[in-house]
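Okay, any thoughts on this one?
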Amino acid sequence: MSDELEPKRTSRDLDEIQKRLSRWLQGEVADTGASITDLRRPSGSGMSSETLLFTAYLRNDGVREEQQLVARLAPTSEDIPVFPAYDLDLQFQTMKLVGEKTTIPVPRVLWLETDSETLGVPFFVMEQVDGRVPPDIPPYVFGGWLLDASLENRQEVEKQSVHIISELANIDLSTINSEFLEIRFPGETHLRRHFAAQQEYYSWVVGDTRDHPVIENAFTWLEENWPEESSTVLSWGDARIGNIMFGNESFTPVAVFDWEMAGLAPVEVDLGWLVFLHSFFQDIAETYEFPGLPDFMKAETVKEIFEQETGYAPKNLRWFMVYAGLRHAIIMSRINDRSVHFGQAVWTEDVDDAIPHRDLLLSMME
């Protein structure tokens, strides 16, 4: 996708960011000669926050070394952020915890800067990992290495993706301080609090400007079909293959990203999100008469892999797929606000036109 067609994420100037980030790094490592070059934005990534790749030159035992690093920046209020708040400390702590308690390959986090003075927003820096990611823009179902892979290799991607969720579910929460993962909304269970947070998020997104019938129907359907809840686990929150980097020559994960939606919830929240997000892209592919990957990441397959991994059979996955569709619909509504802000879209009379998967969501509730 060309730069002109790719959705705009920010109005911040890269040259100015590079100057400020270089000065910050010099103070952080007590090295006035520290510098960064080749600052750039990766293509095909998500829009909830800004990711910057760069090369850093740092002194180590008297020798200047080159390091490939990544900065993760909270969005500015001027750029219509997707979420009402960005807790970078949550992401930073979650990545450290997952790195310590599991074999999940999370990038090593180096520095967290909570002061907005340097770049106007908080940010953290982590090590850069080399590999390949199934892209969102254009979606991997339209072409690329995953679509071209053999059936056996795509099955390995499925297995490895579910394994990440399995490892998270196996973390014994009684052995850690999980207070920073608590979702601070009212509710008797973690799922109820998770749900309440989505209700508040929807109200924040639409304000007094509009109502989305498909989203409000989904809220009603979910209330009327409330599931039996399983045990609470550490929830990744954005559990999808687009947040997994695989080896350049393998189908094994080398890095797992995007922990900004992490929290405490039943494991089905992540499993439902994993299945739904592929269904979302597959639905887009079929709309444009592309074959896509119709037999990939099916609900029954994911349930079977997870049960083999953990001995637990996930329950009510359809409910959690609808819940994922609801959550994603709210996000798409907000992303349309961003696109309107940057002059790349308009609101139509039918506001649900901004939700590309509304027919898919309605069909899941039938």
Strands lie at 35-40, 50-60, 63-73, 109-113, 123-127, 232-235, 244-246, 253-256, 263-266. Confidence is low (pLDDT under 50) at residues 1-6.
